[in-house]
């Protein structure tokens, strides 16, 4: 469905450009209307329906709410057209399930700019019923009495013409009202001219109704007519007259029965939440007209089902409006499901709908004027908000008018109009909270209140009820702003009277930053989830607003201590390694590099950490963190000299990572084959230096798998006592690796536990160790596809850049070939190990491979074995013969 877009049409001299309003999709909203209206028609047709029942619950209201610019008014207009004329229904909307001539739509725009008032609303509903071609005497008489009392000397016909109601619905209503007066006067046998006898007619009719005269038996069925005619004919009384209209509609003959569908648009403009005078009148009208159907569109949900409004409105609470009760719904559900069936949040356009919308708004010779590339950029920037699409179309025409060919970069743009539309119906305190939470990815009411620097939570609580605030009830902080609204509030030129200065934004960022610190420190438990959430938001605030690191330093250490490595920021927000300006930038890059090293080649990790170290922006303890993890990456890449230098520097610094650095030096000694030094160092490390795991790393190369497995179990249990998740998983994976050479059945259980512990962390090298352990467990079995699996695993290891694990893989392969007594394959593996260890580190791996196969050492490494070479040879050869005997006797 499309009409002429006059604003766009008058924005260019190019008459070949066709500017059309485009209506896109919204079929789910039409389905909601069709289903609710069908249910309503069935309800009012049932024998038990009574329009005069003032206590029955009401379910004849459907609400569409959403942010400004989401397309509510367009939807309201399209619904009116579709209900009035099936030929104007959008093609994608299905056929209605009711007779077209039974529905009488009337759309009323409540916007302040439209100048509508309550009188016009009542008159519009009555005027919409003129096509039935007969007076509605009970209502018409009351309305005529009200009119003469409040508009003396002003003809109703002139008022209808001036307000536009006459042009929309015709001028038949005054004649029908006059006919009703004449009929009542005749029934009462009153003398004189009817036009001047409204008061006389009313008094006589009330008396006749009280006396139950037969002459007015047609109107006597309306039990409350006499009371309404006796009441003072003011605006309050007018709001009760729809009860008379409901009674009249119910007694229409079958052939003339109609159902008004009243579409109330821009409902947010009828007042605010402290001034509900007009809302009270409108709600009363809705309640008293239960056989009409109401479709209300506005920015916010209707609160009529909230018991707290008792006294502000006449009919409130969930018993009165069961369909308007708001319930929390998981965010995974669609926007149309975000509220109950009769309160529907209008969602953003899909990317496909955005493209279709832009393609049809401006055309030349039937072809889209906005290119596909530009449409893609605008769509991505819009977050699906139709208002942004409209503003982008206007910008396209403005650029074209100035002689500039629009380019994609021209639409990387925030529109001040979005800010104005968003802020227009917020109180000053709500606007203050909105600007404050635009600094945050997510928030709750206390966080929003503290970030805004307010002493009371009311404004933040009210803000969460706005449609541009999305809710995920399962989130740590359940609320977040609509993406485009957040971007516009933060970045667009704010021209409002209460706009913020740069100092205001800086102070708000500091308040939010401090509040995050308080939430983190006041957490009753370890709160890993809260830690990560606070870090993510705190790092962004500190980086964007050049804040001091403050509590982020301790939070960073807490993050690193568990070795879980959750992502702290999406990839598109990671700091560029060439743009480190502040300590916060450097910390973001440091933690990002540590997290991403589980998914990047270790050479990338070295490069990123080198940039952080060279920037010298971090305090000494965080500088040591970068140096330590760079040293680990150097070790993984096989660069032992660089690793040793870095570890020694960190150890000498006597900081938090000094024990870990001493452990790193023990690992380097082990890698060089100096096992006595490595073991002696392990005994000095304590828990902080992971002494048990270092001992396990020393014993398994000697083939003493039982002692190694026991050490790893002790390391795992100690990590569990200290609550260090990553270390627990790492130690368990190495225990499974050790037992995979001795007991395949036990290794199955240990691997299962390792996989379970690794499920909650992100440790790539450790995961590779479990895959190598699985190969060692299956060594010697002809049906295990060990060689093929090893080939795939080797590719994964090279992608990760963790060099030492490829050596462990070859060791597992040597074990497999030795068990199978495949001397050629063993010789090839030994040759590959020698080639890959020529630098000196892990040179003893080729010795171990020879020990397994019972081969002499052609080129013995300078390894210092703890119990001597012969004892180590016997241990490894014994593992091979034991596995060989096990496979031979297995069924």
Supply the key terms:
single chain, 891 residues, four-stranded antiparallel beta sheet, 41 helices
- Largest beta-sheet characterization: 5 strands, parallel
Share of residues in strands: 5-15%
The largest beta-sheet arranges its strands as 4-5-6-3-7
Runs with pLDDT <50, length 5+?
192-196, 328-340, 571-577
As a whole number of angstroms, the C-alpha radius of gyration is 39 Å
Q: What gap, in angstroms, lies between the N and C termini?
A: 75 Å
Mean pLDDT score: 84
Tally of strands: 11
The backbone outline, from C-alpha atoms, is: elongated
- Please state the oligomeric state of the protein chains shown: single chain
Q: Could you estimate the helical fraction of the residues in percent?
A: 55-70%
Number of helices: 41
Write a compact overview of the structure shown.
The chain is mainly α. It is elongated and about 130 Å long.
Structural write-up:
- By secondary structure, the chain is mostly helical.
- Among the domains are: 2-25 and 349-413; 65-278 and 295-304, no CATH class; 690-889, Alpha Horseshoe (Serine Threonine Protein Phosphatase 5, Tetratricopeptide repeat), CATH 1.25.40.
- It is 55% helix and 5% strand.
- It contains 41 helices and 11 strands.
- The chain has a 5-stranded parallel sheet, sandwiched between helices. A 4-stranded antiparallel sheet has the order 1-2-8-9.
- Strand 5, helix 14 (277-288) and strand 6 form a beta-alpha-beta unit.
- Helix 26 runs antiparallel to helix 27 (602-615), helix 28 packs antiparallel against helix 29 (640-652) and helix 34 runs parallel beside helix 36.
- The longest helix has 21 residues, at 869-889.
- It starts with a strand and ends with a helix.
- Mean pLDDT is 84; it is low at 192-196, 328-340 and 571-577.
């Amino acid at each position: 469905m499309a009409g002429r877009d006059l604003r766009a049409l008058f924005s260019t001299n190019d008459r070949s450009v066709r500017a059309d309003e485009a209506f896109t999709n919204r079929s789910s909203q039409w389905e909601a209307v069709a289903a609710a209206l069908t249910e309503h028609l069935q309800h009012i047709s049932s024998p038990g329906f009574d329009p005069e029942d003032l206590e029955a619950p009401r379910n004849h209201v459907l609400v569409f709410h959403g942010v400004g610019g989401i397309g509510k008014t367009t939807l309201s207009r399209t619904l009116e057209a579709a209900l009035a004329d099936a030929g104007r229904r959008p093609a994608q909307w299905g056929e209605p399930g009711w007779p077209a001539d039974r529905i009488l739509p009337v759309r009323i725009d409540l916007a302040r700019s439209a100048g509508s008032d309550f009188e016009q609303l009542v008159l519009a509903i009555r005027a919409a019923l003129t096509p039935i071609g007969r007076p509605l005497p009970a209502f018409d008489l009351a309305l005529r009495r009200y009119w003469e009392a409040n508009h003396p000397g002003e003809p109703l016909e002139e008022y209808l013409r001036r307000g536009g109601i006459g042009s929309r619905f015709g001028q038949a209503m005054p004649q029908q009202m006059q006919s009703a007066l004449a009929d009542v006067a005749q029934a009462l046998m009153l003398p004189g001219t009817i036009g001047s006898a409204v008061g006389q007619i009313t008094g006589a009719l009330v008396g006749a109704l009280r006396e139950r005269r037969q002459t007015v038996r047609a109107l006597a069925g309306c039990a409350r007519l006499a009371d309404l005619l006796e009441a003072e004919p003011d605006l309050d009384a007018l709001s009760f007259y729809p009860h008379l209209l409901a009674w009249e509609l119910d007694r229409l003959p079958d052939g003339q029965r109609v159902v008004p569908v009243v579409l109330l648009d821009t409902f947010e403009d009828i007042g605010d939440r402290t001034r509900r005078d007009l809302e009270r009148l409108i709600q009363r009208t809705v309640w008293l007209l239960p056989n009409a159907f109401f479709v209300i569109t506005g920015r916010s949900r209707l609160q009529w089902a909230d018991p707290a409004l008792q006294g502000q409105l006449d009919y409130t609470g969930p018993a009165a409006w069961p369909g308007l009760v708001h319930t929390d719904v998981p965010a995974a559900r669609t926007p149309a499901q975000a509220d109950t069936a009769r309160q529907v949040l209008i969602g953003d356009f899909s990317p496909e709908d955005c493209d279709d919308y832009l393609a049809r708004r401006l055309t030349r010779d039937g072809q889209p004027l906005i290119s596909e590339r530009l449409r893609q950029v605008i769509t991505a920037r819009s977050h699906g908000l139709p208002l942004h699409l409209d503003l982008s179309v206007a910008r396209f025409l403005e650029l074209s008018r100035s002689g500039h060919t629009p380019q994609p970069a021209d639409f990387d743009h925030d529109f001040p109009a979005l800010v104005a539309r968003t802020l227009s119906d917020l109180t000053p305190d709500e606007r203050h909270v909105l600007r404050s939470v635009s600094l945050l990815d997510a928030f709750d009411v206390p966080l929003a209140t503290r970030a805004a620097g307010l002493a009371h939570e009311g404004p933040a609580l009210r803000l969460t009820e706005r449609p541009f605030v999305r809710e995920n009830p399962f989130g740590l902080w359940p609320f977040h702003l609509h993406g485009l609204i957040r971007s516009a509030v933060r970045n667009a030129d704010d021209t409002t009277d209460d706009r913020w200065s740069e100092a205001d934004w800086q102070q708000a960022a500091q308040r939010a930053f401090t509040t995050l610190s308080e939430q983190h420190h006041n957490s009753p438990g370890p709160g890993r989830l809260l830690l990560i959430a606070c870090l993510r938001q705190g790092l962004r605030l500190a980086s964007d607003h050049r804040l001091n690191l403050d509590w982020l330093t301790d939070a960073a250490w807490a993050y690193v201590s568990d070795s879980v490595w959750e992502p702290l920021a999406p990839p598109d927000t990671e700091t560029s390694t060439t743009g480190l300006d502040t300590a916060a930038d450097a910390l973001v890059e440091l933690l990002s590099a540590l997290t991403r090293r589980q998914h990047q080649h270790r050479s990338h990790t070295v490069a990123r950490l080198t940039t952080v170290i060279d920037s010298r922006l971090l305090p000494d303890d965080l500088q040591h963190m970068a140096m330590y993890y760079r040293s680990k990456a150097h070790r993984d890449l096989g660069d032992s000299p660089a690793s040793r230098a870095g570890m020694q520097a960190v150890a000498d610094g006597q900081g938090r990572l000094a024990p870990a650095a001493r452990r790193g030096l023990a690992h380097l000694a082990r890698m060089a084959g100096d096992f006595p030094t490595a073991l002696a160092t392990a005994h000095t490390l304590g828990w902080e230096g992971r002494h048990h795991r270092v001992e396990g790393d020393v014993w398994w190369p000697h083939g003493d798998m039982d002692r190694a497995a026991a050490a790893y179990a002790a390391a795992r249990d100690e990590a569990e006592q200290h609550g260090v998740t990553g270390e627990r998983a790492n130690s368990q994976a190495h225990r499974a690796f050790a037992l995979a050479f001795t007991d395949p059945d036990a290794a199955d259980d240990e691997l299962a536990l390792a996989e379970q512990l690794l499920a909650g962390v992100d440790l790539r090298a450790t995961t590779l160790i479990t895959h190598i352990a699985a190969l060692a467990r299956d060594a010697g079995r002809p049906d295990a596809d060990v060689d093929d699996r090893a080939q795939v695993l080797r590719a994964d290891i090279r992608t990760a850049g963790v060099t030492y694990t490829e050596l462990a893989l070859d060791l597992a392969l040597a074990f497999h070939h030795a068990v199978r007594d495949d001397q050629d394959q063993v010789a090839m593996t030994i040759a590959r190990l020698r080639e890959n260890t020529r630098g000196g580190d892990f040179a003893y791996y080729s010795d171990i491979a020879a020990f397994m196969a019972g081969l002499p050492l052609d080129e013995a490494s300078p390894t210092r074995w703890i119990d001597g070479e012969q004892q180590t040879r016997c241990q490894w050869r014994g593992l091979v013969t034991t596995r060989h005997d096990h496979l031979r006797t297995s069924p």
